[in-house]
Design a protein that fits this description.
The protein is built from 4 helices and 4 strands; from the N terminus they run E-H-H-E-E-H-H-E. By secondary structure, it is α+β, with helices and mostly antiparallel strands. It has a single domain, classed as Alpha-Beta Plaits, CATH 3.30.70. Strands 2-3-1-4 form a 4-stranded antiparallel β-sheet, with no helix packed on it. Strand 2 and strand 3 form a beta hairpin. The longest helix is centred in the N-terminal third of the chain and has 9 residues.
């Protein structure tokens, strides 16, 4: 699982591109599913949760088309990768 946090200019624009162009690019790099959560304290901060292997995610980040897609998403700065503090079965 990959979790990222991004600050965006326009959440609606982000979601439009995320569900179309972004989804196609994520699938190309092995992403199995994605969810986006809106931060309750800041409507322009979005948490994205991906079912994605680390190696495939690294290839996605290295794809030369990603910076242009990020601009379409309206990401204000590079997303931060959140790391799990603990992982349990239940």
């Amino acid at each position: 699982m990959i979790v990222t946090v991004a600050k965006v200019k326009d959440p609606d624009q982000f979601l439009k591109i995320f569900r179309t162009v972004g989804a196609d690019k994520r699938r190309e790099h092995g992403c199995r599913s994605a969810r986006v959560y809106i931060d309750p304290d800041d409507g322009n901060r979005l948490w994205s949760v991906f079912d994605w292997d680390e190696a495939d995610y690294a290839k996605f980040l290295a794809d030369p088309e990603i910076p242009a897609i990020a601009r379409q998403l309206g990401v204000q700065e590079p997303p931060v990768h959140a790391y799990a503090a603990i992982e349990l079965d239940a």
